[in-house]
């Protein structure tokens, strides 16, 4: 095929980002086009829905608001793609790749197709045939997969996982996203749920009860572990934080930030909490990594930025239970969502 350019579209609950990508080099060509998924007016509708108890997207949203939110966000997606198409010769593009929060069906191109789950932060989205909508609008071939899955595909072709026959990528964020690539193919499965590691049950300590891996493995797991470890002394720590100038209290970012302050009074505790995060994450991932026989674990998002703080205990937990060595490495692509989505046409 002579034309080796594709449009990569990264859809999130807050922003839509898209760009033209060279499929030979992985280079983003030209400017990245951006739009809010929901503007201030429609974000106010979502805030009002949350006050009514709709903390996440659900099939039971009031129908008129649901339709309005869906149509608005779809218009913004199409307009973002049009921003690119207006600047290029359409025939130079082999297709449009989309990375989007699930649940989704990459075969049918439908988001929120199941009867159980909908994309939690895409309000109004319910059984949306996004691939057909974009293909009909642009007359270009269109493909879809999950946001972290396409990131993993991008890292395979142009990033940290080049040359790997099998690897897992995780993105600790609001939740714990995962993508698995084997022999250059993103794994999907009959029910399109390959990589749902967030559901793995984890017992961190006796007496705390079982939690899911995303409870501890999402980036907010650091705060949760901290709170479990400091229940009795939290008021003392809160006072210390105020003295350090952290008026907002203990968030994951303030806890991690304190780990970089060598003279902080409770630095030993803070460091131990973050290292415990690495240990628990490693124990939760041992099973799926072993079943995959993965040679590499790639970590993206905020989890990659802070990997040096917990990598040692993560690796130790893996080494103690795996029967072979595994490399743990941060993701390296600057635009993994956009580049990975375009790689659906590699």
The unreliable regions are: none
Task: Classify the beta-strand content into a percent band.
Answer: 15-25%
Number of domains: 2
Indicate the mean pLDDT: 91
Which outline best applies?
globular
Give the CATH class of the largest domain. Answer: Alpha Beta
Task: Encode the helix/strand succession as letters.
Answer: EEEHHEEEEHEHEEEEEHHHHHEHHEH
Percent helix, as a range, is 40-55%
- CATH architecture annotation of the largest domain: 2-Layer Sandwich
Number of strands: 15
CATH superfamily caption of the largest domain:
ATPase, nucleotide binding domain
Biggest sheet descriptor:
5 strands, mixed
Distance from first to last alpha carbon: 11 Å
**Would you tell me the structural class of the helices and strands?**
alpha/beta
Strand order of the largest sheet: 3-2-1-4-8
The name of the CATH topology of the largest domain is Nucleotidyltransferase, domain 5
Q: What is Rg? A: 21 Å
Number of helices: 12
Short description:
The protein has 346 residues and is α/β, with parallel strands linked by helices. It has helices at residues 40-51, 63-85, 130-138, 147-158, 213-217, 221-229, 234-244, 252-259, 267-292, 301-305, 307-321, 336-342; strands at 5-11, 15-22, 28-36, 93-100, 104-105, 110-111, 128-129, 142-146, 166-172, 176-182, 185-186, 201-202, 211-212, 296-299, 327-330. Helix 4 (147-158) crosses helix 12 (336-342).
């Amino acid at each position: 095929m002579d034309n080796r350019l594709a449009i990569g579209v990264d859809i999130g609950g807050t922003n839509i980002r898209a760009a033209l990508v060279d499929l030979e080099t992985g280079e983003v060509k030209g400017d990245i086009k951006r739009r809010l998924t929901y503007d201030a007016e429609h974000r106010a509708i979502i805030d009002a829905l949350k006050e009514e108890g709709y903390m996440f997207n659900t099939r039971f949203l009031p129908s008129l608001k649901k339709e309005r939110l869906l149509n608005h966000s779809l218009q913004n997606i199409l307009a973002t793609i049009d921003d690119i198409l207006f600047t290029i010769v359409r025939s130079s593009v082999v297709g449009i790749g989309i990375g989007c929060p699930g649940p989704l069906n990459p075969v049918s191109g439908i988001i929120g197709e199941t009867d159980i789950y909908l994309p939690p932060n895409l309000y109004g989205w319910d059984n949306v045939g996004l691939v057909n909508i974009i293909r009909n609008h642009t007359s270009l071939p269109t493909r879809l997969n999950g946001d972290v899955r396409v990131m993993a595909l991008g890292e395979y072709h142009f990033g940290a996982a080049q040359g790997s026959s099998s690897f897992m990528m995780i993105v600790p964020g609001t939740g714990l996203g995962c993508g698995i690539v084997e022999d250059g193919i993103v794994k999907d499965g009959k029910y399109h749920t390959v990589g749902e590691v967030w559901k793995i049950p984890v017992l961190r300590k006796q007496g705390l009860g079982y939690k899911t891996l995303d409870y501890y493995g999402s980036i907010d797991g650091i705060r949760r572990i901290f709170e479990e470890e400091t229940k009795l002394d939290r008021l003392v720590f809160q006072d210390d934080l105020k003295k350090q100038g952290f008026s907002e209290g203990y968030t994951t970012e303030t806890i991690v930030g304190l780990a970089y302050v060598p003279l902080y009074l409770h630095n030993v505790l803070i460091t131990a909490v973050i290292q415990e995060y690495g240990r628990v994450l490693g124990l939760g991932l041992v099973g799926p990594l072993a079943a995959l026989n993965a040679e590499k674990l790639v970590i993206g998002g905020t989890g990659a930025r802070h990997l040096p703080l917990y990598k040692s205990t993560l690796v130790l937990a893996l080494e103690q239970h795996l029967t072979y060595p595994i490399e743990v490495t941060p993701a390296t692509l600057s635009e993994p969502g956009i580049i990975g989505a375009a790689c659906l046409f590699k």
